[in-house]
TrEMBL record:
PROSITE patterns: INTEGRASE. One of its GO terms (molecular function) is nucleic acid binding. NCBIfam families: transpos_IS3. InterPro entries: Integrase_cat-core, RNaseH-like_sf, RNaseH_sf, Transpos_IS3, Transposase_IS3/IS150/IS904. Residues 107-268 form the Integrase catalytic domain. GO terms for biological process: DNA integration. It comes from the Bacteria. This is IS3 family transposase. The lineage of its organism: Bacteria, Pseudomonadati, Bacteroidota, Sphingobacteriia, Sphingobacteriales. It holds the Pfam family rve.
Length: 268
């Protein structure tokens, strides 16, 4: 009676019911895959998530495109909101020699052409911990890091030592770019760069955008890997940092690299 009333055949009605059931089942499978991935990358953006799950969707014959995934996650309240927080960890008003910015017009075309360095803080109930990072600007690979309770040049040097150990192309020309902080201007740090034939470049105007890749790296680790939360203690901070860098280097895709996944480094 109702089919006749709305001008539908019984076959069309049951086909529509079947399609609705299939679509609902597909969405449930897609959400299950999202939840599984979020256990490793809890704050991964939807575009990168679709890139990682695209092959799984295809194998399961799930017709879930990027826009449909956005709509599905929005409906389920699973979209990630961005956090904005900036804390100064740099003191650049000192007497030590500062180097000019050599990367203003640089064109990146290979790994280990440019390394960017920066320090960010992790809040814990025991007090702040400081993460010293060195990232390859082309591959976005974390080359070296050191988590400690201080801002000493010796701690930054430990991150540099790890990066040098993981260097794959030691005979290629390399530039090290950083802010004008005491750590990077210190004789201890500068001498190690010169000893390894690495050119030195620094920001000039105190603008975070002059070291944007390093600042972005800090934000990713804090926003996507839980390092931006208040942590229990330094031990938990160390564990999450190790896990976050590992996942970042080996699993997380990057838009500027056409979203390839990366191989884990030996130190991880």
């Amino acid at each position: 009676m109702f089919c006749k009333l709305f001008g539908y055949t019984k076959q069309a009605y049951y086909k529509q019911c079947s399609n609705f059931k299939d679509a609902s089942g597909n969405e449930k499978q897609a959400l299950a895959a999202v939840v599984q991935l979020r256990r490793q990358l809890p704050r991964l953006g939807t575009r990168k998530m679709h890139f990682l799950l695209k092959e799984e969707f295809s194998c399961k014959q799930l017709k879930i495109g990027r826009d449909k995934l956005f709509r599905l996650l929005r409906r389920e309240g699973l979209l990630i909101s961005k956090r904005k927080k900036y804390t100064v960890t740099t003191f650049s008003k000192h007497w030590m020699h500062k180097y000019p910015n050599k990367i203003k017009d640089i064109h990146l075309n290979r790994p280990e052409q440019l390394w960017v360095a920066d320090i960010t803080y992790l809040a814990t109930r025991e007090g702040n911990a400081y993460l010293h990072l060195i990232t390859d600007a082309y591959s976005k690979q974390v080359m070296g890091y050191e988590l400690c309770a201080d801002l000493e040049a010796a701690s930054s040097l430990k991150a540099l030592t790890m990066a040098l150990k993981n260097r794959q192309y030691p005979h290629q020309q390399l530039i090290h770019h950083s802010d004008r902080g005491l750590q990077y201007c210190s004789k201890l740090y500068v001498n190690e760069l010169k000893r390894n034939g690495i050119q030195i470049s620094m920001t000039e105007n105190g603008d975070p955008y002059e070291n944007a890749i390093a600042e972005r790296m800090n934000g990713i680790l804090k926003d996507e890997f839980g390092l931006g939360e208040e942590l229990e203690d330094h031990q938990q901070a160390a564990k999450l940092t190790h896990q976050g860098v590992n996942y970042y280097n080996s699993l997380r895709p990057h838009l500027s690299c056409d979203k390839p996944t990366k191989k884990p480094q030996a130190f991880l």
